[in-house]
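Here is one record:
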Amino acid sequence: MTEARFPFARVDPRTATRKFDVAPCVMLVALAEAEAEVCARVLKPLTAGRSVAIMRVVHIRAACERMLVTRPLVVVFAETLGPDDRKLLAERAEDISAAIVTLSKNADEADLRVRLFEAFQRAEQL
């Protein structure tokens, strides 16, 4: 009876749109090796017990493209980037509702830990 009223109720697995779930991640964009290590060290206790990947992307344009697919919770980049690059990253992060953390040149680990924790909280509320 259902098939007669709703012929589209049967789903053909060859043509059906599959559900796509993205694993939570943090994207580190255009950071120097030392900066990325500091971020990874700070993120380790913040992500303990949770399955959160840390993705490092060297190029800004590549990061913007990957954000649309990976949908990171938090995007981290250095404040030393040029204004156009910062604007591009910020706009793309806003498009996907990711929190943004800018890394200062002399980043204090305690301050970075607090800012990343707050960014996680903001991102998870969205």
